[in-house]
Amino acid sequence: MEIVDILNTTTIPLSEITLEKVILAVIVAVIGWIVVRVLISAFTKTLSRASHLPELVIEFLVRFLSVLLYVVLVLVVLATLGIDVSSVVLGLSAVIGLILGFGLQDTITNLAAGVWVAALRPIDKGEFVEIKGISGTVTSVGIMATELVKADNTYITIPNSLVWGSPVINSSRMDTRRVEVKVGIAYNSDLDLAIRVATDLMAAHEAVLPSPKPAVVVSELADSSVNLSLRAWTATPDFWRVRGDLTRDVLKAFGEAGVEIPFPQVDVHLDRMQ
To answer: The pTM is what?
Structure first.
C-alpha cells in the first residue's frame, strides 16, 4: 500500500466530525494534559527519592517519558475525533521509516549517545568541561543534545554524538587541581633568589595546599628571559582565584626582591649612508 493511500484512510469527511466529537476531543485533550503532567510529576518525585540515581539520569528519563506520553495523548485525541488511530500509526511508521532512510541516522546516533552519556556520566550537571574546543558549565543532557553555558553566559547546544565521540576535558570532576603560572626573569637576575621568592609566595597563600608542596621549575631558556613555572595545588573551586592571585602577586614580589622581569626588545642598527 502506498503511503498516500495509508494517509488517505485516516481522513474522515467533515460531516462526520460533529460538534459533540469536537467538544469531547477538547475535554479529552485537557484532561489528558492534566493526567500527563501529574504522571510526569509523580515519576520525577519517584526517581528523586532514589538517591543512587544521578540528577542527570533523572532529567533524561523524565524528558523521554514526557515525549512518549504526549504522543499517546495526541493519538487518543485523534481517536476521539473518529480517526482510525491504527491507520495513523501505520502511516506514521511508513513515513518515519522513509525519513530514517534519508538522514535520521544522526538522530538515532544522538539518541543512543544521550543514553550512554546519561548512564556512564563522563560529564555531570554543574561541571565545567571542554568538548571539541568549547568550554562551559553543563546545564543538562537532553534526548538529542547536551547544553552548556560558557563563562560569558553564552548558551551552547552540542549534539550528543559529539559529546560521546570526542575527548572530554572535565575540569570539575577531581577535588583538587594544579595551578601553573609562568613568568620570565632576566638572564642577569639571581635565579636561586627568584625561585625562593616564588616558592615562599605560593606557600603563604591561604588557599594553596601544603601537600603536594608548591614547586618552581625552570621551564624554558627563551630569547630574552629564563622562564619559570610556579606550580601549586589547590581545591578545585579555588583554582581561578589562586591562579589570579599568584599571577598578580609574583610581579610585586619579584619587584621588591630586585628580580627583573624583562620585556622583549629589538635592537636596530642603522648604517650611516656615505
So the answer is: 0.62
191 belongs to a structural domain:
yes
Q: Which amino acid is at 174?
A: M
Q: Taking the CA atoms of the chain, what radius of gyration do you get in angstroms? A: 31
Query: Within the chain, what is the greatest distance between any pair of CA atoms?
Result: 108
Determine the Cα angle at 232 with ends 231 and 233, to 5°.
135
Instruction: Provide the grid cell at 159.
Output: 549534539
- What does the pLDDT look like over 137-160, one tens digit per residue? 999 888 889 999 998 999 999 999
- CATH number for the domain spanning 148: value is 2.30.30.60
Whether 18 and 97 share a structural domain:
yes
Q: Is residue 37 part of a domain?
A: yes
Q: Helices H, strands E: what count in the chain? A: 8, 8
pLDDT digits (tens, 9 = 90+) for 151-210: 899 999 999 999 998 999 999 999 999 999 999 999 999 999 999 999 999 999 999 999
248 lies in which domain range? Answer: 176-257
The verdict on 12 and 101 lying in the same domain is: yes
Indicate the number of domains in the chain: 3
Nearest Cα neighbor of 214 from 201, 226, 223 is 201
* CB distance 90 to 64 below 8 Å: no
- Residue 145 sits in the same domain as residue 241: no
Q: Which grid coordinates are listed for 191? A: 635565579
